[in-house]
Amino acid sequence: MTPQIPACVISGTSSGSGKTTVTLGLMAAFKERGLRVQPYKCGPDFIDPGLHQLVTGVHSRNLDLWMCGKEHTEQCFLTNLHNSDIAIIEGVMGMFDGGESSSGSLSKTLGIANILVLDVRSMADSAAAIVKGFETYSPGARVTGVILNNIASERHLQLVSDAITKNCTAEILGYLPRNLNFSIPSRHLGLLTGEEAPISTEHIALLARTIEEHIDLDRLVQLCSSFTAVNSEATNPVKNLLPCRIAVARDKAFCFYYEDNFDLLRNRGAELVFFSPLTDTTLPENIDGIYLGGGYPELYAKDLSANSSMLSELRRWIEGNGAVYAECGGFMYLTQGIIDHDGQRHNLVGAFPVFSAMQTKRASLGYREVKTVDRSCFGPAGTILRGHEFHYSNIEEMDFSIPRLYQVNNGTREGYRHRRVLGGYLHLHFGYSPEVATAFINYCQE
Questions:
Q1: Which of 194, 265, 339, 373 has its CA 20 to 30 A from that of 217?
Q2: What is the pLDDT of residue 180?
Q3: Could you say which architecture CATH assigns to the domain 7-225?
Q4: How far apart are CA 381 and CA 32, in angstroms?
Q5: Ranges of H-type helices in 41-193
Q6: Is the dihedral of CA 35, 36, 40, 46 positive or negative?
Q7: What pLDDT does 361 receive?
Q8: What residues form DSSP beta bridges with 152?
């Protein structure tokens, strides 16, 4: 039986309602109480999980019913509950935005509490109408508690609270004052990453104290404990007989990874060894393959280009038919180079004969499903993979002599192959098709 561990989704009425601030504050406050907090993020985001880890010291997991599938989502949620005292899931956008991947759908599927963050700036009684709508919109994804954001005064708090208490069933658990001096620096892809430590320990402590003072944490735990978690049997690791050592690029330039992808590889026998394309001069020893994830290579293009020793190492590995999988920022790293916002060219690995150029506007955003049209590092032709795409760069037109292995559900062809390298803009989550982790290990061992 799954232990009864308090769990909730922190949802919002919309993006910008204060979900991230409330989520980080709750995590920090419960950690200050001596509890081990297990963080999660609803949706495909990489940045919020990094901030969760910064606050809790625990890897945050992505829960996404469309991208990962129901079975893997439930298993990921339950598996990571072990040895935890409370689970907090940060929602995505508004509570019902995103259809199958919404915060409301996730709380309904997992059978856990939904706490609504409501920004009440410039409103009073109208707050009750909003809460009432969220309470009744989708049966089974009910709002259990409400946290008010941007309360201006005691009088403001009373007006809003009286209206909600009179007209709604959800409990008001507390509020954040308008004068709270807390913000997280951001850039084109969103907030700064956890690896960059954008929030000081002093600010985290201040946020934790504010949450402790203004939110009834004991009642929140009680509400979250009244829900029964979904029962699921954890699967046993599928170990490969042969050892496989995979080098994973991980530093400030390459920091966007789904932790579950690492777990799926390790559970099938892979040893992951991390290295930095920014600061290391050589690849790790005795490796069988390389995994280059996404991140912000455009911010460090000058330094990446200056590390000629690492670039040479990668070129030798690739031309020697070494296996490489690269996505988004990792794919950009394998092109001829990056053209920054100032028009300067920074030469990089050059496995693919194009430059990637930064745009002033977002180039692509959305969920993607792909079907492979030929054998790849992820298995035979016809393999289905799911993931997400979000980038501000575009590549120059790729020569048609370069094979495209992905048929994407938006009508495009992607997934470029050079020798034993597969690269593209899509961030893939292996959870929807876990057999691809085994296929990648086998491909590296060939």
A1: 194
A2: 79
A3: 3-Layer(aba) Sandwich (3.40)
A4: 51
A5: 47-56, 65-68, 70-79, 103-110, 126-136, 154-167
A6: positive
A7: 87
A8: none
Checking if the pLDDT of 257 tops 80, the result is: yes
Q: Name the residue among 246, 239, 241 with its Cα closest to residue 444.
A: 246
Residue tagged active-site, from 76, 255, 328, 377: 328
**Tokens, residue 443:** 């491909």
In degrees and rounded to multiples of 5, residue 385 shows phi and psi of -130, 150
Residue 308 DSSP SS3? helix
> Cβ atoms within 10 A of the Cβ of 15, count?
11
C-alpha to C-alpha distance for 402 and 429, rounded to whole angstroms: 24
The per-residue pLDDT for 185 is: 53
Summarised one tens digit per residue, pLDDT across range 17-69 is 999 999 999 999 999 999 999 999 999 999 899 999 999 999 999 999 999 99
Using DSSP's 3-state secondary structure scheme, residue 365 falls into strand
* pLDDT of res. 194: 47
Query: Which residues are 86's β-sheet partners?
Result: 37
Question: Alpha helix (H) ranges present in 153-216?
Answer: 154-167, 201-214
Structure-token pair, residue 259: 């932790």
Give me the residue label for tokens 């504010």: 210
Residue 241 has pLDDT above 80, yes or no: no
Active site residue 244: no
Residues carrying CATH 3.40.50.300, the chain: 7-225
Tell me the residue type at 315: R
Tell me if 376 sits within 8 A of 404, measured CB to CB.
Answer: no
Residues of the chain with CATH 3.40.50.880: 244-445
Who contacts 223 (Cβ-Cβ below 8 Å, separation ≥6)?
8, 113, 115, 144, 145, 171, 173
Beta-bridged to residue 424, according to DSSP, are 327
Q: How far apart are CA 439 and CA 226, in angstroms?
A: 42
Q: Minimal CA–CA distance to 109: which of 286, 239, 269, 229?
A: 229
| Strand-pair category, 113-119 with 7-12 | parallel
Residue 119 bridge partners (DSSP): 149
Model confidence at 233, pLDDT cuts 50, 70, 90, reads very low
Render pLDDT for 308-345 as a digit per residue (tens, 0 to 9): 999 999 999 999 999 999 999 999 999 999 999 889 99
